[in-house]
Amino acid sequence: MQELKWGIIGCGDVTEIKSGPAFNKVPNSSLMAVMRRDAAKAADYAQRHNVPRWYSNADELINDAEVNAIYIATPPNSHEAYALAAINAGKPVYVEKPMALNFTAAQNIAAAAATNNVKLTVAHYRREQPYFKKIRQLINEKAIGDILLVRLELYKPSLTADQLSTNHHAWRVDPAIAGGGLFHDLAPHQLDLMYHWFGPVQKQTGLAANQANHYAADDLVTGSILFKSGVAFSGTWCFNAAATTDNCEIIGTNGSIYFSVFGGNTITVIAKGVVNTFSFETLQHVQQPMIEKVVQYFLGQAANPCSGEEGAAVMLMMEEMAGG
Residue 13 belongs to what domain range? Predict the structure, then answer.
């Protein structure tokens, strides 16, 4: 295989700018086909993005002889079925986060890929963005000394009745579709970074509650992790707050690193009384750096940027904090 010709299953909002166009912008990669159950929307997407083919049936896309790589961008409750179908067809899979509806489903996907010797990558795309790679560099270079602990806070106002009336928001707080609520939608990005930077978990605990009762999913999660590396983590996610907060502080023996996971492009480092800042431009397609690495991995030119086993580990972190 010298070039990847992608098929997207689930060409919804996430693929419009964040990911979809990037498949045509990285070397040795092109977008060949898209699938959505709504045929009219699939056709419209294909026309607007100059995609040669569209389908309303996932099996037809998976079995298209010219499609040799599959990107799964549907809600989590269908990730397992689509991933297993693609793996059984022998086609490498790039699957959106959260990896699956629950840890068991994520394990099933990872196991199937390993058994069938099919490549699998989970779309924890922040790993490859320059902003977060800089934070990892600062950690590895001991810019703030040895890392002791991490404190994270993500607060957002409750979804409004108008927002809940649209499918774009409603499925994210339906546990049957998303596995949980907004914690399951957003925390995978944050927890994967912690796993990527600090390694496997030694132990963890957490609690979850539905304080506002605006929908079935919990709207508050708090959790603590002790990584085997010795780093401690504490996080609070509240989706019934008066205002938005997106803060993370990494605390070391010589200072701290301050940054936002979702809302900022500046990293502040305070070490031994000296303040340094690092600013980054906003990416047009936030998944493009990751997709470039995935293409290289699928073509045998680079290591896997986020394996199925790592994706499943993040699912277990969420599950043990908040329950499935």
Answer: 4-126+288-307
